[in-house]
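pinned: reference chain
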Amino acid sequence: MLKKPLPLFLNPAAGRGRGRKKAA
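pinned: its structure tokens
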């Protein structure tokens, strides 16, 4: 997450692995 903090919020598809899709 620290490596790509922006993509997690900008890309919902990238956050699905982290479960950030709901947060984004």
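why pinned: The first helix runs from residue 5 to 10. The CA atoms of residues 11 and 22 lie 12 Å apart.
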